Amino acid sequence: MGSVAIEELETILSAGQVDREEITLRRYAVDQAPVLDYQLPLAVVFPESVPDVQAVVRICAARKVTIVPRGAGTGVSGGAHATKDCIILSLERMDRVLSLSPDDETAVVEPGVINAVLNEAAAEHGLMYAPDPASFRSSTIGGNVATNAGGLRCAKYGVTRDSVLALDVVLADGSLLHTGHQTFKGVAGYDLTGLFVGSEGTLGIVVGVTVRLKYLPRDVHTVAAFYPDFRQAATGVLAVGRARVQPAIMELLDGGTLAQLDSIHGSDLTARGSSLLLIQTDGFGAAAEARMVREVLAAGGATVTTEASAEAERLVELRRHSRGVEVDDEFRVGEDVAVPRSRLVDYVAALEVMAVKHDVHLKVVAHAGDGNLHPTFWIDRKDNAVDGEALGRLHRVLDESITAALGMGGTITGEHGVGQYKLRWLGQEQPEPLRELQRRIKDLFDPAGILNPGKAI
């Protein structure tokens, strides 16, 4: 049935839109998450329009061929991993900004538009698209919608869902659905737009996104504060909150992350402190807010940058790349948990104990403004061979880190999604009645189970 479906797709689509070459299959088979169950898709399909997507879905539905939607492949939870006998539906060629209304402060884009490209278009009108995941220069808006991506500016501007007004979605039978509204307000009926955002391609394929834009800040001030330890840095986060200042960016880096940045970039961050808190204020009140931030942090024992913020801005750019150049694999896993901000210190202290206990390496970065942490655990490679005992230690520390986050009122994923990789922990966070309700929703939208099976729920 799969080969028949591929032949039909080759008949109705143009040359180059269906690729069965092994080099392409391998390239598109996985995203940047650890690979649990490596599969090659039957083909990679590149639709160029909404009718293309509809035709692909109809053929796959008739032949019972599963579909894995894909953006740029920057996800780190396995949401775009190929599954058995599937096609990969790459939306990267649907990359047009369809409209941008400066007066309405909205834009309509296709799913393959790169986050940074939308921002460039908006900036010409003094506007910006607020969500800015670290991968904003390569990740697509469709992929951001699929995982409800966050980013550095979450502290002030929220996550993707907070900027999405409406969606065009191709359902599992090939029909086209428009959800939401063009206005900032709207409460007619159930919030299906919110349901699709973060659903990881399991309910429908997003082919159009209407987003709300924000004002591009006239002024930005960046503050870097070095601390002797993580505990004091996390205390600084809470102190800024108590001062009722709302930074746009509030990022926390531990000593392990500073050491890695020094190694990669030749910087001297570790000589200046064992933890770094980066805070960026924006808007007309940015200077006054930055002055308040500096006073609060200095009073808490930090070594704070002066008014000249060029270095601090460079440090923010380094933070965007603080996961390093490596991709998660069986030896290294970057996590994406969130805890209440008041528990940041407790959680990182627990992680440090776990790392010692299980003899694994650890570094931590955090979107401290909203309690979202990205701890990375890794073990030493031995000639790239799999050390079963070491891998066992790595998996045990991952399990323990998740259990600890949930015990502190947290979640297993703040912005990366469940995908394939985190399914093993979902039951700890969501009890069975809740999961059963979600399965019923999935069955309603996708009764044949052809859309991204084995992911998200």
UniProtKB/TrEMBL annotation:
It comes from Pseudarthrobacter siccitolerans. This is Glycolate oxidase. InterPro entries: FAD-bd_oxidored_4_C (IPR004113), FAD-bd_PCMH (IPR016166), FAD-bd_PCMH-like_sf (IPR036318), FAD-bd_PCMH_sub2 (IPR016169), FAD-linked_Oxase-like_C (IPR016164), FAD-linked_OxidoTrans_Type4 (IPR051914), Oxid_FAD_bind_N (IPR006094), Vanillyl_alc_oxidase_C-sub2 (IPR016171). GO terms for molecular function: (S)-2-hydroxy-acid oxidase activity. Gene3D superfamilies: 3.30.465.10, 3.30.70.2740, Vanillyl-alcohol Oxidase, Chain A, domain 4. The keyword Cytoplasm does not apply. It comes from the Bacteria. Pfam families: FAD-oxidase_C, FAD_binding_4. Residues 37-216 form the FAD-binding PCMH-type domain. Its cofactor is FAD. The keyword Amino-acid biosynthesis does not apply. Keywords: FAD, Flavoprotein, Oxidoreductase. Its EC number is 1.1.3.15.
